[in-house]
Write a structure and sequence with these properties.
By secondary structure, this protein is of the alpha+beta class. 28% of the residues lie in helices and 26% in strands. It has a single domain, classed as Creatine Amidinohydrolase (Alpha-Beta Complex), CATH 3.90.230.
Amino acid sequence: MAITIRTPQEIEKLRRSGQVVREVLEHVRKAVKPGATTLDLETAAAVKIRELGATPAFKGYRGYPCVLCTSMNDEVVHGIPSAERKLRDGDIVSIDTGVVMDGYYGDSAITVAVGREVAARTKKLLAVTEASLASAIREVKAGATLGDVGAAVQETVEAEGFSVVRDFVGHGIGTRLHEDPQVPNYGTRGLGQKLKAGMVLAIEPMVNAGRPGVQVLKDGWTAVTEDGSLSAHFEHTVAVTDEGALVLTR
Ligand code: MF3
Ligand code: CO
């Protein structure tokens, strides 16, 4: 229940982990191309995480088998990398990873379009989802509430006719991958937990082009849209300050 307030020294450690996550994601982004498999992305990430002296945060977490989640097209989150999943021109793939260094966690995700034949509506879904994360981050400041953060995501997404996934939420992060509070991507301004300087949050809007419903496949992990529509996901780890958000995974 309790939300931990981190010291400046702890925030610095969280920033170091956040920087590793950023480097890994940018490295993997370059490996996204038609013909690559999601297992190729996993391998590139695993090598990079080791090179940078960090430990993967996802592998082994509740039995999750990989260092990345790679969620293609109608997959929302928690897609498992596989040699059987080949990226094709026009696909989208969400790449989500976390690391731990010196006991402190970082977590971030991007969604990338594959190749050149990407539909205008698909590009729009990616842009709006990334913009919804930016709008959430602009709300973060001591004294604001989680309702302000969720409302910002929801307004950005729904103004474009897309929908916010409710079955998964962002989270506090620090010396564990998932800490309190939960960070929904919907809400009402002025309601919910009040933010205090030193809180650290992973904000991660998941946005569907169609209806908001999702279901988890029989592998126990992969969440897909119920209506088969495309889904995008962006995530940053941010620290709350009196002035605003400090984005630790930038
Ligand atoms: N970014 C996701 C989250 O914060 C990834 C978790 S995947 C898991 O929930 F494998 F670690 F569960
Ligand atoms: Co997360």
